[in-house]
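RECORD TYPE: protein structure
NAME: Phosphodiesterase
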Amino acid sequence: MSVPARARGAARVTAADVRGAAWSLVSTTLGLGLAIWVVPGVEVTKPWSLVLAALAVGVGDALLRPVLRRLARRSGVVGALVSGMAAQLVVAWAALTYLPGFRSGSWLDVLAVLVLAAVLMALGRWVVGASDNEYVLGDLLRRARRHAGVPRPARGGADDAGRPAGLLVVLLDGVARPTLDYALQAGLVPTLARWLGSGSHHLTTWWARVPATTPASTIGLLHGSTEHVPAFRWWSRALGRLVVTNRPADAAAVEARTSDGAGLLAGGGVAVSTMFSGDAATSLLVMSRASAGLGPGQMFVHFFASPFVLVRAVVVALGELLKELYQGWQQAVRGVEPRVSRLGWYPVLRAVTNVVLRDLNTTLVAEQLVRGAPVVCVDLVDYDEIAHHAGPLRPESLRALEGLDGVVGLWEQVAAVAPRRYEVVVLSDHGQSLGPTFEQVAGRTFLDEVRRLMALDRAPADDVPGPGRAPREDGARVEGRRRATAPDSEAWGPTNTALHALRHAGDDAPGAGRMLVGPDRSERRADAAATAPELPEVAVVGSGNLGMVWFPREPRRLTGDEVRARWPALLPGLVAHPAVGVVVERGADGRVRAQGRTGSRDLRTGEVVGEDPLAAYGSRAAADLERVAGLEDAGDLVLVSRVDEVGMVHAFEGLVGSHGGLGGAQNEAVLLWPAHLALPDDELEVVDGERVLVGAEAVHRRLVAWLRDLGLREPVPARGPARRDGAP
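PREDICTED:
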């Protein structure tokens, strides 16, 4: 058995350590010097004293970190943050008070020096073009190189033979295959381009089936099934309320229904910033396990408790906020169309997601690689959230993708000195399609249009066939505008997960499992549904350009004929709407039909009457729509927006870049994998003339097969007589 890499050269100091320490000392010295020069309450009489103060601050940070890790186990990140800032303030005050060559004033003066020094250091690194993430990872990389001895070459070097395999799965949320192709040609993703150019990796497309949403694709990729996720959010007749996958309690419930305990990350894997856990042993910033916190002893202690790292993040986040305001203003000034408002809370969310959470994810993944976790999966949402508001191919969206390529490059550096030989798979959960929203086309929201059509020529209650009681004319409650069309619903997810982790409150604490901020924070809890005075007459939800309509007062789905009898103008009005392409309804015989303006198609038999309404949606449209309409919690009516000749769609929510249904590039997801791992041709299907993997379940099966090939999962047992003890 070979000696583990961590045991070799444990005390060796590398040139990178010396360079890193020297740069840290110089930058801290300069930052303190400039800050002291600006703050009137602190003076320095001997310049060399600044070097001593910088050393004291650095040594104090190193000595305090183990204490803060232990503190984080008891009080979470908030306790580590408060204690760390207080301890650093004490160290800085002692250095500026008792070291020779300083005259210090009050605590506030010392605090001002610390904050200003951190701001100046962050700005200085930005001016010289230093990587923010490298700054955050500097200490971790130095420690990893010291334990590893020397940096190892890329795969195939002599040191690789002695290291066990590992797998890093990176989800680039929302990146379509055409978008990645464009970024490769534009030179925006040099790390991925280098891998493809060298032949170390291959690139293909996989088809994200309807609903092409993050919860559906993520649970399929991590757990191998999407049958319990019909949209981004949906009405559950069993629960009598909306299920919102951005709410931790609902994400946990969906995972519990789906997981068989053998997910992609079972057997010691780590999930970072994903919606579901994949049965990972360690879950960090995972939506379905948000109430469990970040976990003890993680790299986040250094990230949150070091004032220089934290203030740097705050400074850069403020810059990201201002950049978003400027870019949104530029779109309006130049008359870019289509576009949506980029004001409100979105600039703040972009700053938090694209700076603070990106840095935190970078450090968490890097630490798990250094620790030698067998499988690590992380979801990076930066591109997806900007593209929702700016557009999939707009410059700011592509710049976000460029930044994510840089993060992957950093993890490549970490993997080179990790105790495992990590193979890296990069994939997306879906793509995005551009287009003006339903409201921009119709002049009213999707919900308001449904309500308007329902009110026209309403049938008398006595004449309505079908189950259940007739709808009330007085005070029938309909799902509110905010719930149906809130444009920031998906964007609030990572922030809420992080807030739950920061609280470290546990499953029994007040508010555990709920949305803490954002448009879903006031959603009714499941235990309150039974006491609700009345179910709404209609629930309307948009997941990109996939729309669903439920009639919750009925104990079962209504057929298309029952809907026509009760609300004669609803179905014809939706079918004829200029923003709607297809309405899927169920017949009394169980058949599912897609209805368009000039024809219809039986999704089971393929029979077309008039013109085929699915002709513009590609060869997978019929199969995808029949499948999603047959899911347990699918809407009574399922809609897909119109798609034009260049792939523009109309989101049923307020997003200019959207995904969920069909049309454009939203279903063309990315899969980039190491060339030496097999992708058998018999697993591929033909979609619009291209051979691709179809569905997140197929990608999950291939990822698990690669785990077996790498020795990270038990091989499939040969078929034979069953053993008496029941073992396979």
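COMMENT: The two ends are 29 Å apart (CA to CA).
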